[in-house]
Specification:
Radius of gyration: 26 Å
Number of helices: 11
Distance between the termini: 49 Å
Shape: globular
Strand content: 15-25%
Structural class: alpha/beta
Strand order of the largest sheet: 2-1-20-19-18
Largest sheet: 5 strands, antiparallel
Number of strands: 20
Length: about 500
Amino acid sequence: ATVLAVAAALLVLSGTARSAVTPASDHALPAELRRILASQPLAKANASVQVLDAESGASIYAHNPDLMLKPASNLKLVTSAAALSLLRPEYTFRTWFYATAAPDADGVIHGDLYIKGGGSPGLVGEDWWLMARRLRALGVARVEGGLVGDDTFFDDVERGPRWPSSSVDNPYNAPVSALSCFYNAVAVTVRPGAPGARPFVFLEPFDGFFDVSNTAVTSGRGRSLRVSRTWNGKRNVIQVSGRIGPGEQPWTTYKNVENPTLYALHAFREAAAREHIEITGESRRGVVPKDARLIWTHESRPLSHLIHDMNKESNNFMAESVLKTIGAELSGAPGTSAAGAAAVRSWLRTLGVKTDGIVMVDGSGLSPENRISSDALARILLAVHDDFQAEPEFVASLPVGGIDGTLDGRMVETPAARHIRAKTGYIRGVTALSGYALNASGKRLVFSVIVNGLGDRVWEGSRSVDRICEALVQASLPEPAPPAAPGG
C-alpha cells in the first residue's frame, strides 16, 4: 500500500510540474478554450476552431468554425485523405523504361533509352541505383543513343500559384515533375579541411548535375557558412562561402534543384555507370514514341508508406505530386493541380462536407490563396476516422505530439505528449494544427485549429495552440447520451 501511495503521489506531482493547464472537466473545457483564445497573440488574430466527439460526431466546442482561412500545411490532410480514399492505400507509382528495340545478344540498345515518370514522389538515391541494377540484370550493357526523360504524366507547371520564385532554394520550394529524384533536392555536406584550406563539399545522392563553387575556408572556431543554389542555364551551381573550424563536425543542409527531369536522368546515368552500363548520348527531355518497346516497369512503395513520409515531415513536393496524380488518374494525363483539386472537391461532397468557400489551388498548402474552415477539416478527419480502409494508414502518418515528425519539438513533457496526433501548418502569419486527441477519460476527439493574422508571432501562436491541445487531453468528458428509442 505504501508503494502504491508513493507512486500515486509522484504521478500527481509529475502532472503538476509538467503543465500549467489545470485538468478540464466537461464544463471547464469550453471556458479554458475561450480563455486561451482571448489571450495574446490569438486575441488579435483570426481563429477558427472546431472540436468534435469522434464517436458521436457532436461538436464539443466551436469558435468561428465556418470562417475560411489559410490552412498552410493542414491542407495536406485533405490531399492525403482524398488520395487514400480515391487511389487506395495500396496504390503504387510507376516509372517505365522503354527503348525502340530490345537489347541485342551483347546487351546493346541501338537507339535511345526512355524513362517515363509516373509521378512517383519517393524515388531516392537507392531507388535509382536499384533501377540501374535491375536493367543490368535484364541484360542491358550499353545504350548507343541518348537518355530521354518523359515527364508528360504531369503538366509543366513546376510551382503552385504565389509560391516563392525559383530563386528561393529552400527544399520546401522544390519544383514538381512527373520524373524526379530525392524530392528534387540535394544534400550538401561541408567537412573541414586542413587549417587555412578549403573545406570539403559532398553532394548526395548524386553530384553529376551540379557545379560547386567553394570559396569557404577552414579556420577559427565554430562555423559561419553560407550555402546557396543557383541555375546557370545548364546545371545547378552550389555556392559555398564563409568558414568552418578545423575541429567542427561535418554540417549538412539541403537545397532544391532546378530542372528536375534532367536531375533524374543524371541520377540514373550515374547509377548506370556504377553498374557498368554505358550510355553514349546526351540526356534530354522528350516523349516516348508510340512504337517503343517496354523493357521494365519500376513500382514504388505503396501510397500508404509515402503518405506517412509526406505528413510526418510535411513534404510539399510529395503533396503536389500526389494531387497531380489524383488528377491524372481520374481525369487523364497530364495531371494538373486543378484536375486533382476538382476530384478532391467531388470527394468532399460525398462526405457531406460543404465545399462553398473552400479554395484549393495546390496540394501542400504552401500557396496563400488556399482557404478552408476548421469545421471542414474536422469533418474530413471525422470521415476518415470512420473509414476502415483508410483510417489506420492515415492516422499513422500524423506527427505525434512531443515525439516525432514536425511535432517532435512541441508539447514535450506536457500532458499532450503522445496524446495528440495532428498535422502542423505554417506560412507567413499562419499557424494551424488539426488531428486527433485522446482525452483523460479515454475518448478520442477530433479537432482543428487555424489561426491567421499572427504577423511575426507565429511561434507564440503555435504555443497557444499547444495549450489548447493540453486542455483537450486533460478534459474529462461524459459519455454522449444514448439515442432515443424509436417513437420516443
